[in-house]
Structures are given as C-alpha cells and as structure tokens.
Amino acid sequence: MDASPERQPILQAVDLQKTYGRRRVVDGVNLHVDEAEIVGLLGPNGAGKSTSFRMICGMIQPDRGRVYLEGQDVTDWPMFRRARDGHMGYLPQEPSVFKKLTVEQNISALLELLGMDRAARKTRTQQLLEEFNITHIRKSRAAGLSGGERRRLEIARCLVSDPRIVMLDEPFAGIDPITVQSIQGVIKQLRDSGISVLITDHAAREILGTVDRCYVIYQGQVLIDGSPEEVKEHPKVREEYLGDLDGAAQTTVQRSEAAGRPSGHIPRPHFRESNSPARKPARRVTDV
Fold this sequence. Notes:
The chain has helices at 49-57, 79-85, 103-113, 118-131, 147-158, 177-192, 204-208, 228-233, 235-242, 245-258; strands at 11-20, 23-33, 38-42, 64-69, 72-73, 88-91, 165-169, 196-200, 213-218, 221-226. By secondary structure, it is of the alpha/beta class.
C-alpha cells in the first residue's frame, strides 16, 4: 500500500500487528485515508477489522506497526490526545449522547469543555443544528430521539472540535433502511465539506453504498483495497464474505416497499461549501 504521491494522507496505518494468546489477529495491515475521502473497513467476523480499527483509534496498542495522522506519529498517543491534537473525531457504536440533556445542550456542553465563550458556543451550536437538520428537535431530550435523530446528533457532536477525519464505528447499527439513507447522506456531506471518514460496520451493503474506497480484511490481512464495484466483484470476497449481496439488497428494498415506507423522505443535512481539493479516484485492487 503506497499513499498518494501528490499529497500526504490524513491517516496512515503501517504494518499493524496484534496477537492475542497464540493467535495473530492482525498480521501486517496497511491502509490510508486521503483528504475528503470516505474509506470503509470490512471483513468477516474474527477477520481482524475491529481490532485494526481500534488500534487506529487508539483504544488498543499494536504489538508492531505505526499510526500517523497528517504525518504525525500518534501510535503512542491515547485516544483523547488523538482527538485533541490529532484532529480526529470518533463515533462509538454505543449511544454516546447525554440522555437527560436536550439536543442543543448536548452540543453546547462539549463546546464549553473546549473552552469556548458563551457567544461562540451559541453560534457554533446553531451552525451544527442547521447543518444536520436537527433544529426542529433542539429542545427535545436526547433520551426520546429516534435512532436516526440520535445518529445525526452524535455525528454533529463529533464535529465540535473541527476534526480533519472522523472515525465511525457501526453507524448503521439499530436503524431502519430508510434512516440508513439519511445517515449515508450525512456521511457523504462530511466528505463534501472536506472531512475524511473511516467507517467500519457489519452492514456490508450499506458501507459499499457509502464509501469511495474500501478495504476488506481477511484472516488478519488486507485482501483487497478497491472501489465498491471492485470489492463486490472480487471472487474471494464474494466466496468468503459477501455472497449474493445484490440479492440481499433487493430483498431489503422489497421489505421496505411492502411496509409502505416511501423512500427519500428524510431531509439531508446542508453543509457549508468547502474549498478543499477535489478528491482522487479510488485506487485499483491490491491483492495480498
């Protein structure tokens, strides 16, 4: 895996390894994420994708290998420092909102922790509420939000520190197919505003419908690094992981239509225009 020669990647992981007991769970994983790019991390259960993701986020230490954020070696940095000094945002799989606070309080509380004065907090909170189309629920308590509303609030909270890259851990878990479309729109708008995204999820169809490029981890190694189309057509990926993905997708759509749910009725967020450079095309397949 070689990063783009034109510019330094936002995130780069080099030769990551992790062993538990006698089993090497991750065995030389290399990956990178460029500026304003959505990259997926997929793989069967036990393949090493979650361990790789957690090493990149700083939740666990690799036995070997390095992690770089904008060229800075952050391998030994704890997770909070990667967020504070490495411009990394993180959305955990588990609910991360303050349930007893309102939507706007959930955002302003984090801004206060960053040391913003009251006027700046008010301006930034309003900005994020509008960008994620959650202004209409600003006074609602987080405990009463739907799955999609909570996800949008959680991603908005990720942006309070103006990260360059956001790490999303199973953002499609626990939400219905129509809400998935809304969250996919949110993630793509992050990219369009110049923010990079690394996303891992068990929902392969949803991931492949969102990302620009995808890594599939198999038996602790990168099996393929390619576009969603390349991943779906890779024989080993189909045999060991995806199966008949198109058939499964069609079944999901049919179930949604049978339930009488109209498509596309959830508004997408509106982000400010960015002057970020245009993203590069996805890389070609690399077999390991």
